[in-house]
């Protein structure tokens, strides 16, 4: 299963490495949005169950992975920039569905708030609009390592926190990848995390009112950084949303063990291929109505 590789020009500003997994039997196309510090390789397990049911589009942000050689990377880009890139790729590949992972959910939801006409449904995984104590502690420690471009300690931090439930082999891959990033990638993530922690530039909940399509939020049962209960605050701000919890899984869901992979597959395919009439709209939980915006 080899993808078609292309470098897509976005408004003459960015060059984006893309991978297109075409399926002769698929009638719909889905685009996957990476989390922070990640590349297309992070979705290797996800592609296995999305293809060949769908055509699948993966891409690296301009500062990351195989997009890096095509861009100057002289300055960090914003989440708004990432949302504009995503919107362009949606048009370029004629995308029907969207799925994001972790901090990729910020750019994904900013893009969805613009109501791209092609997108019918979206899946937002391992994301929370709340910064709880565990996440703030993780981000604040990460800021120190990012500022120092200390990739080795940053890799250990990721594996000991959000990656604590990953198999040892994946942790080794994770550490090797994070510890060998270019300096501009650490600068990029420092700028983003610093904005989030200090609330200098964040997505106000009000902007989410623009999202009119069905959205499924998927979180791991044991994910203390983006826990399932916290994401349900979004019922106050989205007109049609659903929630799913992957049993015995942490932040990385389908990468952690076979049962989580199988449940992730069933949940995502059930939502994307299901009839809209059967989709449930969840009502707000009273104890979560005081949520902080991210």
Write the layout of secondary structure elements.
Elements: E1 4-10, E2 14-21, E3 29-33, H1 44-50, E4 55-59, H2 79-93, E5 97-101, H3 104-112, E6 121-125, H4 133-147, H5 151-160, H6 168-179, H7 183-198, E7 215-220, H8 228-231, E8 241-246, H9 258-273
Parallel strand pairs: 3-4, 3-5, 5-6, 6-7, 7-8
Antiparallel strand pairs: 1-2, 2-4
Helix pairs in contact: 2-3, 4-5, 4-7, 5-6
Characterization of this structure:
The chain has helices at 44-50, 79-93, 104-112, 133-147, 151-160, 168-179, 183-198, 228-231, 258-273, and strands spanning 4-10, 14-21, 29-33, 55-59, 97-101, 121-125, 215-220, 241-246. It is of the alpha/beta class and 294 residues long. It has a single domain (4-130, 202-286), classed as Alpha/Beta hydrolase fold, catalytic domain (Rossmann fold). The chain has an eight-stranded mixed β-sheet with strand order 1-2-4-3-5-6-7-8, sandwiched between helices. β1 and β2 (14-21) form a beta hairpin. α4 packs antiparallel against α7. The longest helix is centred in the middle third of the chain and has 16 residues, at 183-198. The protein starts with a strand and ends in a 21-residue tail after the last helix. 44% of the residues are buried. The model is unreliable at 276-294 (pLDDT under 50).
């Amino acid at each position: 299963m080899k993808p078609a590789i292309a470098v897509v020009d976005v408004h003459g500003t960015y060059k984006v490495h893309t991978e297109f997994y075409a399926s002769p039997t698929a009638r719909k196309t889905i685009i996957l949005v990476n989390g922070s510090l990640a590349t297309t390789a992070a979705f290797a397990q996800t592609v296995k169950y999305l293809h060949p049911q769908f055509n699948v589009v993966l891409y690296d942000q301009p500062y990351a992975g195989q997009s890096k050689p095509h861009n100057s990377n002289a300055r960090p880009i914003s989440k708004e920039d990432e949302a504009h890139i995503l919107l362009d790729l949606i048009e370029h590949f004629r995308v029907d569905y969207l799925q994001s992972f972790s901090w990729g959910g910020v750019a994904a939801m900013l893009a969805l708030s613009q109501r791209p006409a092609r997108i019918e449904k979206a899946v937002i995984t391992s994301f929370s609009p709340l910064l709880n104590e565990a996440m703030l502690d993780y981000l604040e420690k990460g800021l120190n390592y990012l500022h120092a471009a200390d990739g080795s300690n940053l890799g250990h931090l990721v594996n000991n926190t959000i990656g604590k439930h990953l198999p040892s082999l994946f942790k080794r891959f994770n550490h090797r990848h994070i510890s060998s990033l270019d300096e501009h990638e650490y600068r990029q993530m420092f700028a983003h995390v610093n904005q989030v922690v200090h609330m200098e530039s964040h997505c106000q909940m009000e902007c989410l009112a623009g999202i009119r399509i069905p959205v499924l939020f998927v979180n791991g049962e044991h994910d203390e950084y983006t826990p399932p209960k916290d994401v349900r605050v979004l019922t106050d701000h989205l007109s049609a949303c659903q929630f799913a919890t992957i049993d015995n899984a942490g932040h990385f869901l389908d990468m952690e063990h076979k049962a989580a992979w199988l449940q992730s597959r069933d949940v995502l395919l059930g939502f994307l291929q299901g009839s809209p009439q059967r989709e449930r709209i969840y009502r707000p939980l009273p104890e979560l109505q005081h949520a902080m915006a991210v």
